[in-house]
Write a structure and sequence with these properties.
- The chain is built from 4 helices and 6 strands; from the N terminus they run ααβαβββαββ.
- With 193 residues, it is of the alpha/beta class.
- Strands 1, 2, 3, 4, 5 and 6 form a 6-stranded mixed sheet that branches.
- The longest helix has 47 residues.
- The chain is elongated.
- The relative contact order is 0.12.
Amino acid sequence: MVATSTLKTKSGECISELVDRRYDRACIDKELDFWDHCLTEPQRNADVAEDRSCQQLAKMFEDCLSRAKKTTLHCSSVLVPEKLTRRIACEVLRLASCEPCGLRGCVLYVDLDLDKGCERLERIAYDATVVPTFELTLVFKQDGAAWPSLRDFLFMGTCFAPTFRHVLKLSPGFRLVKKKLYSSSAGTVVEEC
């Protein structure tokens, strides 16, 4: 029995033809149920895998910001807009989808656009065993409209060095720059979100 997407499962003609060939009716029903399930499940399985990848990538961004807050950013906390890392992860997956190795061939640079210029937070190789085929530069943006809190003014200069920021608030906007590394049509794609 061959299953194709054009097969009309459980149609009278199909079943009677198989019964005429002396196939067991219960076996035929089980087989058709199995192929019905297989034909509808691939999209659901792909959605689940993509959602899992999106969650893992969002977690990587959150971990990166967490590490950078003490080492590079010199602040006690980073305020991230709700679902920002998830939105970024979905965009990264979309940009990686047309690459030969997908996300595995990506080197991701995470930057923060501050008043004094861009600060490199981290370099992430999604799969270090794969030769990179493209680079993505993610630029988080600082929320310029945020007023410093009274607590920041009170702590300034008393306990902390002048370069210490108490809270850094990120903007809901970000920039992704894609650069193909090994392609005859190598180019740069800039997406502002």
